[in-house]
Write a structure and sequence with these properties.
Length: 419
């Protein structure tokens, strides 16, 4: 196992008065910090999609690399039960465990079904839950003894893919994901995960509930990632997650993932490739502003209330005294790119997927109104260039349709015209 100092800074320069998002110096890298968590106000952990596990002991002001996994693992989630015991998951389908605060990791003996993986972890006391995968199937894992033993459950009857899990206590919890039939879904359990029911759907195909963020005992927010919605939206509940309403962030569409709140009034949502949105009235109204980090997958509230965000860098929100110079708009690196030809197409559609690292992927056809037409490819692939052809059925309608890629680090839709 390797341990290396990633970055350390002892003084803050360029002090500005007011409130701002701060980018932790030295954290910008070629990939994305997919998840982060804090055990207490000092000790925290983060994982990056290109392999590093990071540890902080000063509340997030400096971080140390404690391990570097192979990039093909694509680390997605991290959860610690105390200052020693933690878990991380990779989109390759493997789960790893540490018992020495992140310095040494061993693979958990848990065999998931082919294509399955864990996108999100949660724990309460000794109980740990994990869900995945965005690219299907819908799987829930659970341990009641701090990860010594695990059970695996399929939630395919309620969802096709899962991304997020949040538990208020050991009994009441929520899962976010996608249903091909119903769009974005939120599932709820009141018995610790033995039984689940649907409490929210967006009714727009290819929508995901990507992240869930609680504010106080009764209010919850959820981000909705979409390809076909005419607007940018979130879901909100004021009664502890029993009833949800869909709220408009902006009337035009933007591809959002991370969502986080400082308190009951001030919150943010983060698009992949453009400046984020701010609300100061609990989500009724939103404003896009420069200086808000983009490409955020996870917002996380440290126990003392300091809000952190993991994306192209690690950021935190400083709401008192002085702050470091504000967050810059950082470039987003993509490992998968889909192209299609010819366009317009008559009988045969050719498409090429370029992958610079191993990835889970789905390639689907959707109608202009968002109906799912056909799945062309699914599974985990090695780096390379893949060219395939699809002959349109004789009854395939003329007009516009979409070729959609969903991979570990991207969602992409290509507009195709049939003549």
């Amino acid at each position: 196992m390797r341990c290396a100092i990633l970055f350390l800074f002892t003084s803050l320069a360029t002090l500005l008065a007011g409130q701002s998002w701060v980018t932790v110096p030295g954290t910008f890298g070629p990939q994305r910090y997919e998840d982060l968590t804090f055990v207490n106000d000092s000790l925290g952990f983060a994982v990056s999609s290109d392999g590093p596990v990071l540890r902080t002991t000063d509340g997030g002001l400096s971080w140390v690399i404690t391990e570097i996994f192979p990039p093909e693992e694509y680390l997605r989630a991290v959860e610690f039960l105390d200052d020693s015991l933690g878990f991380t998951s990779s989109l390759s389908g493997r789960i790893f465990k540490t018992e020495d605060s992140g310095f040494n990791w061993t693979q958990v003996d848990l065999e998931l079904s082919p294509g399955a993986g864990i996108c999100g972890f949660e724990h309460k006391d000794d109980v740990v839950w994990g869900v995945g995968i965005f690219a299907y199937p819908a799987v829930l894992i659970k341990s009641t003894d701090r990860g010594e033993n695990w059970t695996i459950s399929s939630l395919d009857s309620l969802a096709d893919g899962l991304v997020e899990v949040y538990f208020r206590n050991e009994q009441t919890g929520f899962i976010g994901g996608i249903s091909e039939a119903e769009g974005a879904v939120i599932l709820r359990t009141d018995d610790g995960g033995d039984n689940w029911r649907n409490v929210f759907t967006s009714a727009i195909p290819a929508d995901y509930v990507w992240k869930i963020f609680p504010v106080g005992p009764d209010t919850l927010y959820a981000s909705i990632e979409s390809l076909f919605s005419p607007s940018t939206t979130i879901a909100r509940s004021y009664d502890g997650g029993e009833n949800w309403t869909e709220e408009v962030v902006e009337m035009t569409f933007n591809d959002i993932q991370g969502i986080g709140f400082l308190d009951g009034q001030t919150g943010w949502v983060s698009p992949r490739n453009s400046p984020g949105y701010l609300t100061q009235d609990g989500g009724d109204n939103w404003t896009r502003m420069a200086g808000i980090p983009s490409n955020i997958n996870r917002f996380y509230s440290r126990p003392d209330g300091t809000l952190f965000a993991g994306g192209s860098a690690i950021h935190y929100y400083q709401s008192d005294t002085t702050v470091v110079s504000s967050t810059a708009q950082l470039p987003v690196h993509r490992n998968t790119i889909l192209t299609a030809f010819p366009n317009p197409v008559h009988e045969q559609l050719n498409y090429r997927l370029e992958a610079t690292r191993p990835t889970n992927h789905r390639i689907d056809l959707f109608s202009a109104d968002g109906r799912h037409l056909s799945n062309l490819a699914t599974g985990r692939i090695a780096p390379g260039s893949y060219t395939e052809s699809y002959r349109l059925p004789a009854n395939f309608p003329d007009g516009t349709f979409f070729l959609v890629l969903r991979s570990d680090d991207a969602m992409q839709a290509i507009k195709i015209n049939r003549r």
